[in-house]
Each structure stands twice: as structure tokens, then as C-alpha cells.
Amino acid sequence: MSDSATRGSARRLLAVRAVSLVVVLGAWQYFGDDSRPINFPTAWGTLQALWRQLADGSLATALAKSNQSLLLGYSLALLVALPAGTIAGLVDPIRRAIDPFLTIMIATPLIAVVPVVQAMFGLSLSARVAVVFLFAVGFLLRNTMVGVRQVDATLWEMGRSFRAPPFTMLRKIVFPSALPAIMAGARLGLGQAVSGMVVAELTLVGFGIGSAIEHANTTFRTADLIAIVLVVMAEGILLSWGARLLHRRFERWRIGEHGFA
Amino acid sequence: MTNRFSLRLGLALAFGATATIVGAADAPTPAAKDSVTMSINRASLKTLPTHMVVDRLNEMGYQVKLVVIANTSAEIRAGATNAVDVTSASMTAQLPAMDAGLGRKVFLSRYKNPFVLIAETGIKSCEGLNGKTLTVATATDISGVLAREWLEAKCPSTKANVQSVPNGKDRLSALIQGAAHASVLDLEDATSAMHKVPGKYAILANLANEYPLVGGAFSAAPEWLNAHETFVRDFIAVSLDIQAQIYADPAAFKVKAQKFLPAEDPSVVSDAVDLYLRDKIFPQDGGLAPERVQQTIEFSAPTEGFKHVRTPADVVDRRFLDAVLATRGKGK
């Protein structure tokens, strides 16, 4: 495809997205009603509520508090899932042993285990971290395992014929090959981790964003409530976008240094 | 055979028609049997009287359908969108909604504030809560405000570590598992805690008696109330009858409660009923005395005060309750 065709296609995509955004915002503005705080507000009313909460700093404070558990829980999930998924992908009996548990973990609505987390960790930060960890780890582990298992057999063969030591095999063959699947799992896990953060704060112990949502909900300030939800959504989108950028960077490294296509 | 069947059917129809005509003369049932959707919280001692009232109303020919909505805010929003005709959420939860534009009026109270502050027995006083974890539902709901008010009134220098745990059963389990040292629970959950770990917990403050606020309250849209006047009066009359019956025969109520809450230890239910009746949690006068409603408004208001909700007249419609009380020779 020529450059001008690519630019034309990108412009059309941008135009479609801009029109859809205008339609959604227009419909929201039309159907919203700011006459009473309990009603579904207009887009403008929600924007004002968002600005008010950003200006007084309450939203930033709540988000900063919540992100402690997100950062710790997701980091812990990465630390556990990457080595465990690699080992499970390489050692078939281990994969067979953990696979059913992973399937159950991914299929189960994890909100149901929140009381169990409370029983184990109480109401502390570690309890919220545990919920975030549980929400994220399944996807990370499964994708890492699958990515490692999908390494091309000829690459294994090549590594073996060059008598590459295990660590070199991992670094030069396994990780570059499994990277797309691992990064897809990382993005999925990140979205789940954000959900886990909010679930923990809404159901386990009121804190940060969860407390802010609960307060707006119980005082029936619907515009405030939607504004907070929009901020959580924005955080999720930003993190996913960051993960995508990271993925692209790793892709360049993968293709440039290791010749994977 | 066919003739005999026809004869039986004819007799049955004739008997049914006669019974209907005779019954209509006696019962307070209106000619048109209203169909009403009412929301209620999940099964507990607090909701049992409402179930009894609904059973009796349905026997009278009404078609009252109870919809269980576990989340109070969701219940109030269901009322705001007229998804249900009558809601029964707590008054302190309804007041902010009314201030935010919920166009409904309370016409009867279900129960008064049933909360107590329960703590480990080692905590003997308000000051003993210093540095201890105290759980409430949220900082701004009734349990949170009760805890804050009580601490400020009794020991203003005490700094308890107040944590929000929205669900009462989760607060109960957090307490029993040692994740909290004290909690604001309703009398039923508090009794459960004291039974599950005997000797470990005691009631530090009976907030139900110290703050006799309006608890759960039935509300509906004013136009709905006007359109269903007969139903509303019957509902109030039956509710008052059931409340009186509960106090007159606690043993029968205990039996009903134990059947209603089969998962609960019968001794817990029995003891909780005793506490409910001792503290007069179920009001026999409709529970909407103006001074009590005013106190509840003042108690529930945020620091800056409500914008629209200021007096009982802003939130309560006493017309139907007063009419029923008048027929029984009771005033406000």
C-alpha cells in the first residue's frame, strides 16, 4: 500500500472515530438531565463534575491511594507468572498439573473469592494486593505458558545443535518467540488488575477510588459517580496504551536483535 | 360421570362466589385488588415483619410482590426510576437521595436504628478504642456517622482506626477473624458475633438506644400514594397489627424467625429477637414522630447541611398513618 493510501485510510479512521464520539456525546448531552443530582446527567454536567473533583484534588488523592495496591499486586503477578508460566510451558507434567486450576481461575468470577481473601489477609493493604494479584495472575500465567509452548520446534533444534546452554536458549529463543503471547497476557492481566483494584475497594474494604465511588453513589451525585468511573476507565486505557508501546519496543528488539518476524 | 363432575364444578363455583361476596363484606379489601411491587433487603430479622405483612395482604386479595435488592443505593435508584412502587431502604440512606431530587415520601417506618458498637471484651471504654481497628459500612452512612458522633461525644481525643467494610456480614466475619477489634453492627449480627466466639465480644455502646433514629422506612412517589390510598391504609393497618402481635407473642415470632432464617443458629435468632423487642426496634406507632424524623434529618445531613431536606414535611407524608392511628384512637 502506498503512503498516500495509508494516510487516506488513517484519515478515514480518524474521521469515523471523531463522528462516533460526537454522536455519543451529542446523544448523552440530549438524553441527560442535570435538573436533579440523582438523574442521569448530561455530558457537560459530568465534565463539570470531573473538573470539580480534579480541581479540589480529591480524585488524584483517591487514585494515588488505589494505585498502591495496583502496582504491588500487578508486579507480584508478573514476578510469579513469568517464571511459573515459563517452567510450565517447558515441563509438560507441570503444565498438565496446573492447567485445570488455571482454567478454573480464569472461568471463575473472582469477586466470589473476596471473602476468602478477607479471611486470609484481613482488611490490610496486603488483602487488596492479593485481590489485584488474583485478578491478574491467571491471564499472565496462561499466556506465558502458551507462548513458551508455541516456540518453533526448528528453533529448539537449532539451539540444541549449537549446544546452547539453558539460559541462552531462554534468552535467545524462548523469550523472543513467546513475547507476543506474553505481552498479550500482560495487557489482559493489566485490565483485570484495574478491575481487581476497584472490586477490592468496593467489596473488601472502602479505600481510594472505591471509597469515592461509594460516597458518590450513596449521596446520589450521579455526575460525580460517572466522572470517577470515567477516570478509572481512562487509567485502564492509558495503562493498556503504555503496555502496547512497551510491546512495540520489545517487538523492535525481538525483530532487530533476534531476527524474528 | 360427566354430569357428576359438572355438578361438583357448579357447586364449587357457587360456593366460591358466595364466599367472595360474604368475604368482601367483612374484609377491608377494596373492590379493585391492587398489584404492588415492593423492594426489600435480603432476609433478616428486620425484614421478617414486612414478609408477614405482605403474606397477610396477599391473603386479603392484594397482589404484593416482594423484590429482594441487597444493595441500598440500588434499591433507592429502583424507586427513582419507578421500577418498584414501594421501597423500604433505611431513612438515613433515603434522605441524601431525597435531597438530590428523589421525588418520594416516607409513609411508614419499618424499624428504628438497630445498631450497636460491639468490641472485644478487653476494650472496656470509648478510650480503649484508641489505635484499634473499628469497622463501619462507610464513613458517611448511618453506621459511620453513628460511630463518629459517639466517639466525638464520649472520647473526642480517641483516634480509632476506622475502616470501611460495606457489607454487615463482611464486618461480622472481619471481627470474628480478628481483622478488626470493634465494629458497628446491627443487633442481629452483634448477637451472632457474641455466640460464635463466646466471651470475646461485648456491646460497648447501644447506639440503638442512644440514637433512636428512624431506621428502615417505606416510601413511594406522592402520586402513587394518592392513587393507592386504600392499599396504603390497609398496608399501614396490617403493619401495626403485625408489630403489636410480635410484642404480644414473642415466642410465636421467635418460631417464625427461626423458620425464616434457617441458616442461622436458632439460639442466635432467639437472643436477637429478645434484644430487638427489649430495645423496641419495631415501632408500634408507625415510627414517624416528627421529633424523631427531625433528629434523623439532622443526624444524616452532611457538614454543610442538606439543600432541600430540612423538616419532616419535606420527606414524610403522615396523612395515611394519622388516618389509621385516628381509627384506633391514637394520636401522633
Please outline what is shown here.
Helices cover 84% and strands 0% of the residues of chain A. With 261 residues, chain A is an all-alpha fold.
Q: Total strand count of chain A, please? A: 0
Kindly report the average pLDDT value of chain A. 90
User: Count of DSSP helices of chain A?
Assistant: 10
How many individual β-strands of chain B? 9
Give me the number of helical elements of chain B.
Answer: 15
Oligomer: heterodimer
Question: Could you outline the blueprint of secondary structure elements for this entry?
Answer:
The complex is a heterodimer of chains A (261) and B (332).
Chain A: H1 3-31, H2 43-55, H3 58-90, H4 92-107, H5 114-121, H6 125-149, H7 153-161, H8 166-204, H9 208-218, H10 222-258
Helix pairs in contact in A: 2-10, 3-4, 3-6, 3-8, 3-9, 4-6, 5-6, 6-8, 8-9, 8-10, 9-10
Chain B: H1 2-26, E1 35-40, H2 48-59, E2 63-68, H3 72-80, H4 91-99, E3 105-109, E4 115-120, E5 133-136, H5 142-154, E6 161-164, H6 168-176, E7 182-186, H7 187-196, E8 201-205, H8 207-210, E9 217-220, H9 222-227, H10 229-248, H11 250-260, H12 266-278, H13 290-300, H14 312-315, H15 319-327
Parallel strand pairs in B: 1-2, 5-6, 5-7
Antiparallel strand pairs in B: 3-9, 4-7, 4-8
Helix pairs in contact in B: 2-10, 4-13, 6-7, 7-12, 10-15, 11-12
